[in-house]
Amino acid sequence: MVWLCYEAAVKKWRAVQVGRASHTEEENGELLLESIMEKNSIGAAEALENHILLPLETFWIDSINGKHLCTVLPLLGPRLSDWVRWIQTDKPDRVKSINTQLVKGMGFLHKNGICHGDFRPQNILMQLQDGALDEISVYEMRKEILGKPVMTEVLLGSGERSPFSPEYSYSRG
Fold first, then answer.
1. What positions does the domain Protein kinase occupy (predicted)?
2. DSSP assignment, residue 25?
3. Tell me: the pLDDT tens digits for 38-86?
4. C-alpha distances in angstroms, 100 versus 30, 60, 77, 86?
5. If we measure between CA atoms, which residue out of 151, 101, 152 comes closest to residue 126?
6. Would the CA dihedral through 107, 108, 110, 114 be positive or negative?
7. pLDDT tens digits for 88-129?
């Protein structure tokens, strides 16, 4: 699950991915990537130059389901699969540039002994221009961009509330 969050201390929008409780450090792709990059003395700047995004921060939270690994990332844009539908076909240079970046990123991973394992357009996110959304206030994001959320009561199959879950879930209207 990925949450849109605002990091007030630095005034930036972030994505926080909360992993399944069954994930251990060894099962998490981002942590494995980070560990291999560290072992090869590759920093975040070099990875980014090669179109690979490393987490800004990771932390664990405990729940009734177990421990969840949380990964903090810069906010990214649409999936490549969605972006392809929006591009203008009369701009082949743009498509060529994206393909070049994809090949460069994959080459960088392979050069460092990393196999992606699920490289497909649905799993590739477009990078936004640095700070592209950071001027949007929390109020504007909530009220004007995301709109009024749809509240749904969270109940067990028996129709009762669980003491371990939130009262409501929210989705975009």
1. 1-173
2. G
3. 898 988 889 989 999 888 998 988 887 788 889 999 989 888 988 888 7
4. 23, 36, 18, 19
5. 101
6. negative
7. 666 788 888 999 999 999 999 999 988 888 899 998 999 888
In sign, the C-alpha dihedral spanning 43, 46, 49, 51 is: negative
Number of H helices and E strands in the chain, helices first, is 5, 6
Task: Let me know: does 51 contact 96? Beta carbons within 8 Å.
Answer: no
> What's at 51, amino acid-wise?
H
Which region, left, alpha or beta, applies to residue 41 given φ > 0 means left and ψ of -120 to 50 means alpha? Answer: left
What are the φ and ψ backbone dihedral angles of 40, each rounded to 5 degrees? Answer: -90, 10
Structural domains of the chain in order of their starting residue, each with its CATH number: 2-135 (1.10.510.10)
| Residue with tokens 């001027």, as numbered in its chain | 135
- 168: its two tokens: 């409501």
Statement: the pTM of the whole predicted model exceeds 0.90: no
| Nearest C-alpha neighbor of 102 from the set 67, 138, 126, 85 | 126
Give the separation between CA 137 and CA 15, rounded to whole angstroms: 16
- For residues 17 and 2, the answer to whether their CB atoms sit within 8 Å is yes
